[in-house]
Design brief:
The complex is a heterodimer. By secondary structure, chain A is α/β, with parallel strands linked by helices. Chain A is built from six helices and ten strands. By secondary structure, chain B is α+β, with helices and mostly antiparallel strands. Chain B has five domains: 2-279, Rossmann fold, CATH 3.40.50; 286-395, Translation factors (Elongation Factor Tu (Ef-tu), domain 3, Beta Barrel); 405-473, Alpha-Beta Plaits (2-Layer Sandwich); 485-592, 2-Layer Sandwich (Ribosomal Protein S5, domain 2); 597-677, 2-Layer Sandwich (Alpha-Beta Plaits), CATH 3.30.70.240. Residues 42-48 and 56-66 of chain B have low confidence and may be disordered. The chains are: A alpha/beta, B alpha+beta. Chain A binds chain B through residues 63-69, 88-89, 96-97, 100-106, 108-109, 113, 116-117, 119-121, 123-127, and chain B through 118, 147, 150-151, 154-155, 157, 514, 609, 612-614, 616-617, 619-620, 625-633, 639, 641.
Chain lengths: 235, 695
């Protein structure tokens, strides 16, 4: 299953990166305009980890656990179809046992609470996360401090952290390293920056930052706009 | 008559325990003049709220049995079913939702949308019940109806829209602004009987206007007329209400009311809301299964002259005898009529027709479609369908979950034995999730139900109501067996010596089924097994599934495919093929890697955030899987899946871990494989029991 999924996972884009992965203690981000499919793509990244039996915590800053779980269920069925899995139960068990959802409703998110929650999970829940998926963080509002907080958590728990970030059509700001708003003033904190870019021919997933290298040449893949899985063609 | 039905409202009041729904019901009865004084749950005056009809409920301050009651409000006939709040009794809620057309979802302004509200809401979705929300206890410290409305949107995905905003909160709560009339409502008199309509307090005008905008925005999605009226600035109250009603009936909008039943504020406007926004029986499509046409679904019409169809949804023992609550779906039922019970075809005569008000009653001559009434002395089960004989149909059954927990009960003396039998006989008629049987091997009487508290209540009732001296065993969970891989069989049953011979061969395979149900597939070609014997093969396998070889418990989720076999012109018979199937099962089962399954409960714990670690530890120690943890203000809700066998006594543990500040609910989620070490223990125990049984 791992090999099959590797061929269609959006994280195939990292095959061309220097470390071939984000790596523990590091931050990665998936940027796109609203409605392009960030959350779906982010959850595929989550499945990439789950299929490798990594423990994963999905941190939602807007939606409740039930809604997040329902996103996973939708993607789950896409995957069952795409991978032609005969006994889907095994994948479901894998997902349920290795994924944990932390939701912060009504603006209850605080970095200290997150640290405590993760600590409780490790100490009392017997669940040591290897990957954190953070959906719904408003980078403009959150500012550098919050991202630095995540960086410190990533190091403390030796976990990869993947974010989604919304770019806005009306804000064209891009820094001289090619990183658009809202990350243009904090791109140094991220180790991998990906961008989902729709155009007339489909959706492309481009690698904007690969650890210390910016704008890696020919480093993108095509994404199927209906499933958000890699199509197997170059971007 | 249609006009009459249009003004009938069959509503439930569902909520989290302690949200104040019994107090709310009491106030509704007071304002609709069905009672003349108000009491409280656990009332100091020792009377107790009128809707809590059982002694035990009064003592525990919780509502266990539904009691139906009737009242009238501004020309509307409202039938109310008070429903229990504890998850162990959800069959009561399920039953209520089956017969109701709409519901009030009561939420605590402090606690908000709690775990039980989520469970109840899920059940309402299953029965497609439109609802309005009432944010109660706005007078309590920490009350925040705005937060609760947001939670309705975020946690329950409701399009929740405030119909009112509170005037003051907590100790200063003093009425509300109606966003449709744009008037302030205040409540005077000893019990809030006198409603004063006043101009909106100056400090609230801007907020009221902003919230009204939101209401109009939401309502206009359901009415082009309203959209036009908004553009032309000629919005009327009727237009807004009609649009909100449409959205509510479609279950795409949930109007939210605020108040404090205890402080007598906001109940009358809520009743107006029931009349304005909840459906009448005419707005709801009800169906039955036509038994003359292989269960074809037919629509029932509220026409009073159509053949009568009614559903018995609740049995209750009253001081005057057994009461059967009926909802009439089609036609009418009058005193003196004959009705036929579709289950056993027995005829009953309608002696007295009663409209219930908790413990008091009112005789009525006739009940029409949409009415909820009670009959005296009818021998039936909860869920039975009655018709006047002109139709042969059955109402679709209420979803009844399988019991997950059992315990043994033994009468302490001879006198108690008769009482025990009487009690069990009554409970199984009242509650389809309560089951009882005698274990063939040990001769013990076993009762089964939906949870520890569920069975606790029945044990208490046996003692109190039936005076039974009872010895109660340890609770046991309902384990199941299943296979985990495909295995082939090819078995010949042959007995051809002396007398009539028996011959049958069946071949094929068994494998786990995807949906967890038993499936029998006939792929036999060329008549290797004659068609007339195929049902016998199926029945042979079914017989084996009732008692698995490992623990002697039911086998779940097996797909059996028979693709070959052989018959004998003289010696083959149904018995021979059924026996061959039993042999085939025994041959293949051990090769199909059988496993033991245990019931897994979905557990939701809510606690102040500082106890999150303790709660997680308690779940982890119980072999639980934590699914999520949601922070909302200072509260955390942890959701997990935990084996039922590990949940005994959890309420006590949780209390001590959190200084009594946490609460939990649980409901059956699924069956899951038990770990190998536990499976071995269970097998050894089953073997011991078998040995003991044979001694």
């Amino acid at each position: 299953m791992i090999e099959d999924y590797s061929k269609i996972s959006p994280l195939r884009v990292l095959e061309k990166s220097s470390l071939k992965e984000l790596g523990p203690g590091n931050l990665g981000v998936l940027m796109a305009r609203a409605g392009v499919g960030k959350t779906a793509c982010l959850i595929h990244i989550a499945f990439d980890k789950l299929i490798r039996r990594e423990k994963l915590v999905h941190i939602s800053l807007t939606d409740g656990p039930e809604k997040v779980a329902s996103y996973y269920n939708v993607i789950f069925y896409d995957l069952v179809k795409a991978l032609n899995i005969p006994y889907e139960q095994d994948l479901r068990v894998l997902m349920e046992q290795n994924r944990m959802i932390l939701a912060y409703l009504n603006r209850s998110f605080k970095m200290e609470r997150l640290r405590e929650n993760l600590g409780n999970l490790v100490q009392f829940g017997g669940f040591t996360p290897q990957c954190l998926i953070v959906d719904g963080l408003e980078f403009l509002e959150a500012g550098r401090g919050i991202v630095e907080g995540f960086k410190s958590i990533a190091r403390e728990f030796q976990a990869e952290v993947w974010f989604s970030a919304v770019t806005h059509r009306h804000i064209q700001e891009i820094n001289d390293r090619g990183i658009p708003n809202p990350l243009h003033e904090m791109d140094d904190l991220f180790d991998i920056i990906l961008q989902l870019q729709p155009d007339a021919t489909g959706v492309h997933l481009n690698l904007l930052k690969d650890h210390d290298t910016y704008g890696t040449p020919v480093a993108g893949i095509r994404i199927d706009p209906s499933t958000f899985l890699a199509t197997g063609r170059e971007g | 008559m249609a006009e009459d039905i249009q003004n009938v409202r069959n509503i439930g009041i569902s909520a989290h325990i302690d949200s104040g729904k019994t107090t709310l019901t009491e106030r509704i009865l007071y304002y609709t003049k069905r009672i003349h004084a108000v009491h409280e749950v656990k009332g100091k005056d020792g009377v107790g709220a009128t809707m809590d009809s059982m002694e035990l409920e009064k003592e525990r301050g919780i509502t266990i049995s539904s009691a139906a009651t009737h009242c009238e409000w501004k020309g509307h006939k409202i039938n109310i079913i008070d429903t229990p709040g504890h998850v162990d009794f959800t069959i009561e809620v399920e039953r209520a939702l089956r017969v109701l057309d709409g519901s009030i979802l009561v939420l605590c302004a402090v606690g908000g949308v709690q775990s039980q509200s989520i469970t109840v809401d899920r059940q309402m979705n299953r029965y497609k019940v439109p609802r309005i929300a009432f944010v109660n206890k706005c007078d309590r410290s920490g009350a925040d109806p705005y937060r609760v409305t947001r939670q309705l949107r975020e946690k329950l995905n409701h399009n929740a829209v405030l119909m009112q905003i509170p005037i003051g909160l907590e100790a200063d709560f003093d009425g509300m602004v109606d966003l449709v009339t744009m008037k302030a409502l205040r409540f005077g008199g000893e019990f809030g009987d006198e409603i004063r309509e006043e101009p909106i307090p100056e400090g609230l005008v801007a907020e009221a206007e902003a919230e009204r905008e939101k209401l109009l925005d939401a309502a206009s999605m359901f009415s082009d007329d309203l959209t036009e009226a908004i553009l032309e600035e000629r919005v009327t109250e009727d237009l807004v209400r009609a649009a909100v009603r449409k959205g509510t009936l479609l279950r795409e909008m949930t109007p939210v009311f605020v108040g404090s039943a205890y402080k007598n504020r906001g109940v009358q406007p809520l009743l107006d809301g029931v009349a304005h926004f909840l459906p009448s029986p005419l707005d709801v499509e009800n169906t039955a299964l036509d038994l003359d046409r292989e269960g074809l679904e037919i629509s029932l019409s509220p026409d009073p002259d159509a053949p009568a169809v009614a559903l018995a949804f609740k049995l209750e023992v009253s001081p005057y005898g057994q009461l059967t609550y009926l909802r009439v779906y089609q036609g009418s039922v009058a005193k003196g009529d004959d009705l036929i019970n579709m289950r056993d075809r027995k005829k009953i005569k309608v002696g007295r027709l009663i409209r219930m008000h908790a413990e008091k009653m009112e005789d009525i001559p006739k009940a029409g479609a949409g009415d909820i009434v009670a009959l005296f002395g009818v021998d039936c089960f909860s869920g039975d369908t009655f018709t006047d004989g002109r139709l042969n149909c059955s109402m679709t059954s209420i979803f009844v979950p399988e019991p997950v927990i059992s315990l043994t009960v033994k009468a302490g003396d001879n006198k108690s034995e008769a009482g025990l039998a009487k009690a069990l006989n009554r409970f199984i008629r009242e509650d389809p999730t309560f089951r009882t049987h005698v274990d063939q091997e040990t001769g013990q009487t076993i009762i089964s139900g939906m949870g520890e508290l569920h069975l606790d209540i029945y044990v208490e009732r046996m003692r109190r109501e039936f005076g039974v001296q009872l010895e109660v065993g340890m609770p046991e969970v309902a384990y199941r067996e299943a296979i985990s891989r495909k295995a082939e069989f090819n078995y010949t049953h042959k007995k051809q010596t002396g007398g009539a011979g028996q011959f049958g061969r069946v071949a094929g395979y068994m494998e786990p089924s995807q949906d967890g149900e038993y499936e029998f597939v006939n792929e036999v070609k060329g008549g290797a097994v004659p068609t007339e014997y195929i049902p016998a093969v199926d029945s042979g396998f079914r017989k084996c599934l009732a008692k698995g070889p490992m623990l002697g418990v039911e086998v779940l989720g097996m797909r059996v495919v028979v693709n070959d076999g052989q018959s004998h012109a003289v010696d083959s018979s149904e018995l021979a093929f059924s026996t061959a199937a039993v042999g085939a099962f025994r041959q293949a089962y051990p090769k199909a890697a059988p496993i033991i399954l245990e019931p897994i409960m979905k557990v939701a714990v809510e606690c102040p955030s500082e106890y999150q670690g303790n709660v997680m530890a308690s779940i982890n120690q119980r072999r639980g899987t934590i699914l999520s943890s949601a922070e909302d203000g200072v509260f955390t809700a942890v959701e997990a899946e935990v084996p039922l066998s590990e949940m005994f006594g959890y309420a006590t543990t949780l209390r001590s871990l959190t200084q009594g500040k946490a609460e939990f609910t649980m409901e059956f989620a699924k069956y899951r494989r038990v770990p190998e070490s536990i499976a071995e223990e269970l097998k050894a125990k089953a073997a011991d029991k078998k040995k003991g049984g044979h001694k």
